[in-house]
Amino acid sequence: MQRNLPWMLAALFAGLTVYLAPVHAHAERVRDLGQFQGVRSNQLTGYGIVVGLPGTGDDNLEYLTQAMKGVSGRMGLTLPAGVAPGLKNAAAVMVTADLPAFAKPGQRIDVTVSTIGKAKSLRGGALIITPLYGADGQIYAMAQGNLAVGGLGISANDGSKLTVNIPTVGRIAEGASVERAVATGFDSQQTLRWNLFAADFLTASRVRDAINQRMPGTASVEDGVTLALTLPIESNTRASVMAAIEMIEIQPAETPARVIVNSRTGTVVINSAVRLAPAAISHGKLTVRVDENPTVVQPAPFSRGQTALEPNSDISTEEEDRAVALFQPGASLSQVVDALNLLGVTPSDLVAILEALKQAGALKAEMVVI
Question: What's the predicted TM-score (pTM) here?
Answer without folding.
Answer: 0.64
